[in-house]
């Protein structure tokens, strides 16, 4: 497992601040450096802890304490830089006195964090957490999840309406005339019915007749063990006698590969490999047998007899790796018409959003004798009912495997999806820029961060955690959304990691169960759905360390006359997106948000920006449209990378050739462009005039 992702990203950000803001740390540089080294040292134990925290609440609490310590350190440093910046306008005697006071306070706070880290470190050995490389542990909960997933071809299955056409197509592929060995892949998100469909075609009369003797089903799982998979297959091959099986059990793994190859090479066979998690797992299973290195068919030989391997996986890259000549069979969510064939209430089926596993579990609940009031409770909180203890194959339990399998760099990107409203169509351009601004995207050599972010997006799509809504003519994803149950998982994990608080503020008419009063002083990210005026009227001084504020207009007109409270209450804000909110003006004090990296003001009706916008020296993204004029202060924001200023009403001069980090410039007029020395913009990748 990867290191606790959010901690790693936060520690890296602290290191970046020490480099970028070096001038502010005079007098406390040594202490802050030591703190950074201590935090990096704790990272060495997080990989081992990450394996254990799924099964041990004590370890989970230990990781949480490290996370809080890192967040505290980040808060102290951000506030110290903010205070140091504000002192530049004071007189020299006052500035000198306050500098000493600030350094003393920071020093004391850093000492307190270091003492806390020492206490956390002392408890590490008692929890059995070793350094990276000193040992590994087997997660009991991970094993339990895999046991729940373990499949057999004869297990009793619920009948899911809507798979008939897909089964028909697969049967034809399996019994087709193509004599080469083919790998046919079923690809789709967890719970979508891959295993159910595979069992349906595996036991189909025509398939059984086509593969009468050499037909086997093997469950692979995240913990891929080739020897176990080979033995599952060998025990099911008709010609394998009891003596042969007993002999095979004594063989080494590579010898088993030879044994299996020998039994399959002269025969027409069908092998189902259920739940393959990575290309490396496929390569390991299909590796060349040791005694026959020139065999093109490897452990699963191509004898030119029409053999087939049916593979189920959550990831498209596994399918393409297994057989580049075969087009993966991508499973789709059931249409509403097919869902209604299950004779469930339309509203409750809608909540399943086409996910067969959820529909099956809901059917199990329907079979119970419940009162109308009890059914109303199920309807209002269906996710909890489907995932509750006692539902052995609960939806969230199944989907949790996909989260556990995510590499560390993708986990913050996935958790970020928890901030979007249900069924919301997400602009991928905005999503990628938000990931970058929040520090979730790692800098890669010779590759822009936006390109790296797009790779992250495609990885999540290939893992079936994000659904594509719209693509461009060159097949780039323009819009996407998240399945309701995937979002439930993201919200659950986000709260667990303190990624978001419990205070997502929403319109009470749209979401009556939410409450704006549930504020946490540690809350770092908030989303507002529709009722911004109500949000603005609430006391916000209890959340001083908020880093991200996103607004989503879910319908209707919402306006706000004053935004001063944002700057006054959220002084270390990094991301502010108010797209779709009617705004009369932006206060000049916005220039005090020196940590701001992303400012989104698209479709706000705003006509002017204050000149103080030029003080936002860390701003990387400005996304706004329909301004009367763009203030000629952009040249001061040298960290700007992505500038969207479409549909300006006036063509006033705009100097931008000092912004040498600029990568995307959209909306500049022709006259504005020709007045700049474009040869200085060496990083510019995209220009739209």
Tell me what you see in this structure.
The protein is α/β, with parallel strands linked by helices and 689 residues long. It has 27 helices and 19 strands. Helix 25 (532-536) links the parallel strand 10 and strand 11. The longest helix is centred in the N-terminal third of the chain and has 31 residues, at 92-122. The model is unreliable at 132-142, 155-160, 293-297, 336-342, 364-369, 389-393 and 502-518 (pLDDT under 50).
Task: Describe this protein with a few key phrases.
alpha/beta; 41% helix; single chain; 689 residues; 9-stranded parallel beta sheet; 5-stranded parallel beta sheet
What is the structure about, briefly put?
The chain is 41% helix and 11% strand. By secondary structure, it is α/β, with parallel strands linked by helices.
Number of strands: 19
Strand order of the largest sheet: 9-10-11-13-15-16-17-18-19
Radius of gyration: 29 Å
Straight-line distance between termini: 46 Å
Low-confidence stretches: 132-142, 155-160, 293-297, 336-342, 364-369, 389-393, 502-518
The count of helical stretches stands at: 27
Strand content: 5-15%
Helix proportion range: 40-55%
For the sheet with most strands, the description reads: 9 strands, parallel
Shape: globular
What is the quaternary state of this protein?
single chain
The structural class is alpha/beta
Rounded average pLDDT: 76
């Amino acid at each position: 497992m990867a290191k606790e992702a959010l901690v790693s990203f936060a520690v890296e950000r602290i290191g970046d601040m020490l480099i970028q803001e070096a001038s502010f740390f005079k007098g406390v540089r040594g202490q802050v450096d030591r703190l950074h080294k201590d935090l990096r040292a704790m990272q060495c134990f997080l990989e081992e802890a990450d394996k254990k925290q799924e099964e041990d609440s004590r370890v989970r609490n230990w990781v949480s304490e490290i996370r809080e310590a890192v967040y505290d350190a980040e808060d102290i440093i951000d506030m110290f830089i903010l205070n140091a910046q504000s002192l530049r306008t004071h007189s020299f005697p006052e500035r000198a006195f306050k500098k000493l006071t600030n350094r003393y306070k920071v020093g004391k706070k850093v000492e307190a964090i270091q003492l806390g880290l020492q206490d956390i470190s002392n408890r590490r050995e008692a929890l059995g957490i070793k350094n990276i490389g000193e040992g590994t542990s087997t997660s009991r909960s991970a094993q339990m999840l895999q046991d729940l997933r373990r499949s057999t071809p004869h297990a009793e299955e619920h009948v899911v309406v809507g798979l008939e056409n897909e089964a028909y197509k697969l049967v034809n592929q399996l019994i087709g005339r193509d004599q080469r060995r083919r790998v046919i892949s079923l690809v789709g998100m967890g719970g979508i019915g891959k295993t159910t469909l595979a069992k349906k075609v595996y036991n189909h009369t025509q398939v059984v007749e086509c593969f009468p003797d050499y037909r086997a089903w093997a469950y692979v799982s995240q913990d891929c063990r080739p020897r176990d998979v080979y033995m599952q297959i060998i025990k099911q091959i008709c010609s394998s006698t009891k003596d042969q099986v007993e002999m095979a059990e004594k063989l080494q793994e590579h010898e088993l590969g030879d044994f299996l190859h020998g039994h399959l090479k002269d025969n027409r066979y069908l092998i189902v490999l259920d739940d393959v998690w990575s290309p490396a797992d496929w390569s390991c299973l299909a590796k060349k047998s040791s005694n026959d290195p020139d065999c093109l068919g490897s452990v699963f030989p191509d004898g030119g007899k029409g053999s087939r391997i049916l593979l189920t996986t959550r990831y498209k890259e596994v399918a393409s790796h297994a057989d580049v000549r075969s087009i993966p069979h991508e499973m789709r969510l059931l249409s509403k018409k097919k869902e209604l064939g299950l004779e469930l209430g339309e509203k409750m089926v809608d909540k399943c959003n086409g996910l067969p596993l959820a529909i099956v579990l809901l059917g199990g609940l329907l079979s119970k004798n419940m009162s109308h009031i009890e059914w109303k409770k199920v309807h209002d909180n269906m996710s909890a009912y489907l995932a509750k203890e006692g539902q052995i194959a609960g939806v969230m339990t199944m989907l949790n495997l996909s989260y556990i399998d995510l590499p560390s760099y993708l986990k913050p990107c996935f958790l970020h999806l928890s901030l979007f409203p249900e069924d919301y169509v997400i602009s991928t351009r905005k999503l990628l820029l938000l990931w970058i601004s929040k520090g979730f995207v790692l800098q890669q050599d010779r590759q822009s961060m936006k390109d790296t972010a797009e790779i992250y997006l495609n990885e999540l799509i290939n893992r079936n955690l994000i659904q594509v809504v719209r693509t461009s003519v060159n097949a780039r994803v323009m819009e996407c959304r998240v399945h309701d149950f995937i979002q439930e998982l993201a919200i659950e994990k986000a709260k667990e990691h303190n990624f978001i608080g419990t205070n997502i503020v929403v319109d009470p008419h749209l979401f009556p169960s939410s409450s704006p009063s549930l504020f946490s002083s540690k809350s770092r990210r908030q989303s507002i759905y529709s009722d911004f005026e109500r949000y603005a009227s609430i006391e916000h001084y209890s959340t001083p360390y908020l880093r991200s504020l996103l607004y989503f207009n879910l319908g209707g007109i919402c306006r706000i006359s004053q935004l001063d409270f944002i700057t006054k209450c959220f002084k270390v804000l990094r991301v502010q997106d108010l797209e779709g909110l009617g705004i009369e003006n932006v206060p000049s004090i916005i220039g005090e948000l020196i940590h701001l990296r992303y400012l989104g003001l698209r479709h706000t009706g705003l006509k002017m920006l204050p000149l103080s916008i030029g003080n936002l020296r860390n701003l990387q993204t400005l996304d706004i449209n329909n301004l009367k004029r763009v203030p000629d202060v952009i040249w001061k924001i040298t960290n700007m990378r992505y500038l969207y200023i479409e549909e300006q009403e006036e063509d006033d001069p705009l100097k931008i050739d000092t912004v040498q980090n600029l990568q995307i410039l959209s909306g500049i007029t022709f006259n504005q462009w020709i007045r700049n020395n474009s040869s200085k913009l060496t990083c510019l990748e995209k220009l739209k005039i």
